[in-house]
C-alpha cells in the first residue's frame, strides 16, 4: 500500500499473512503490517516499524498482538494477550480488561472485515449497520460499519469494482475524519483503499503466497 497525506507521499506498508503454525495448541496465522518505505521528515512512522498479530486460522480471533512504531503512531505500541474463551485482554503492564467474545484488534479487524456480511443501507438508516468489537488504543470500541453502493475505484494496482464501507469508531477525534475502506467486489475482498481525513492508503500490488 502507498501512503499519502493531502497528496504528499509518506511511504509504503506491506500487509501479509506471514506464517501458519500451532500456537498454544491452536492452528494459527501470523498477520503482519510492516513499514517498507518512509519518506524523510515523515512524523508518523519509521522504516521497519511494524504490527504483528497471531490469530486463529478459522475465526481470525486474536491471541497475541504487538506493535512497535516510532513517531506519532507510537501510542499504538503495546503487547496484548487475548483470552478469547474468557472474554478478557491483558496488557503488558498487567492490566486486565473484560471484552465481548469475538473482539478483534486493529490488524485482525482489517482482515476479518472481508468476511463480514455487509448490507447496503440508506444514508439516514442505521438498521443495516454491522457492529464489531475492536480493542485498540488501550480500550474497547464498538465499530459500526455501513456499506455503500458499489463503485469503481482506481488504485496504483488497477481499476476495481468496489464496495465502500464507512466506519464509525466511537472516538470523536477519529470519526470527524470520516474513516472509510473500499473492498474489492471479487472473491478475495481485498481492501483497495483506506481513507482517514487527508490520509490515504492505496493498494499498489498483491502477491499470493501460501503461508508456511
Walkthrough of the structure:
There is one protein chain. The two termini are 23 Å apart. It contains two helices and 15 strands. It has a 15-stranded antiparallel beta sheet that branches. The chain is mainly beta and 212 residues long. It is globular, with a radius of gyration of 17 Å.
Task: Produce the secondary structure layout.
Elements lengths: L1 E4 L2 E16 L2 E13 L11 E7 L5 E7 L9 E6 L4 E4 L4 E3 L7 H7 L17 E7 L2 E9 L3 E5 L2 E11 L3 H4 L4 E5 L6 E6 L2 E4 L10
Antiparallel strand pairs: 1-2, 1-15, 2-3, 3-4, 4-5, 5-6, 6-7, 7-8, 9-10, 10-12, 11-12, 12-13, 13-14, 14-15
How much β-strand is present in the residues?
A: over 45%
Write down the secondary-structure element order: EEEEEEEEHEEEEHEEE
Overall form: globular
Contiguous helical run count: 2
Helix content: under 10%
Gap from first CA to last CA? 23 Å
Global Rg: 17 Å
Largest sheet: 15 strands, antiparallel
The structural class is: mainly beta
Q: Poorly predicted ranges (pLDDT <50, ≥5 residues)? A: none
Query: Mean of residue pLDDT?
Result: 90
Care to count the β-strands? 15
Amino acid at each position: 500500500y502507498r501512503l499519502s497525506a493531502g497528496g504528499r507521499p509518506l511511504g509504503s506498508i506491506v500487509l501479509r499473512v506471514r506464517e501458519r503454525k500451532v500456537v498454544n495448541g491452536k492452528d494459527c496465522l501470523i498477520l503482519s503490517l510492516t513499514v517498507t518505505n518512509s519518506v524523510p521528515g515523515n512524523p508518523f512512522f519509521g522504516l521497519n516499524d511494524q504490527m504483528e498479530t497471531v490469530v486463529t486460522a478459522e475465526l481470525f480471533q486474536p491471541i497475541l498482538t504487538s506493535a512497535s512504531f516510532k513517531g506519532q503512531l507510537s501510542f499504538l505500541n503495546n503487547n496484548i494477550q487475548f483470552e478469547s474463551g474468557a472474554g478478557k485482554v491483558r496488557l503488558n503492564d498487567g492490566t486486565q480488561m473484560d471484552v465481548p467474545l469475538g473482539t478483534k484488534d486493529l490488524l485482525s479487524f482489517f482482515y476479518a472485515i472481508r468476511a463480514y456480511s455487509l448490507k447496503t443501507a440508506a444514508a439516514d438508516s442505521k438498521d443495516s449497520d454491522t457492529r464489531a468489537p475492536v480493542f485498540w488504543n488501550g480500550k474497547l470500541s464498538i465499530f459500526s460499519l455501513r456499506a455503500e453502493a458499489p463503485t469503481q475505484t482506481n488504485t496504483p494496482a488497477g481499476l476495481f469494482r468496489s464496495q465502500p464501507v464507512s466506519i464509525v469508531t466511537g472516538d470523536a477525534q477519529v470519526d470527524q475524519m470520516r474513516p472509510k475502506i473500499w473492498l474489492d467486489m471479487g472473491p478475495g475482498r481485498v481492501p483497495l483503499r483506506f481513507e482517514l481525513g487527508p490520509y490515504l492508503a492505496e493498494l499498489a500490488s498483491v502477491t499470493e503466497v501460501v503461508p508456511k
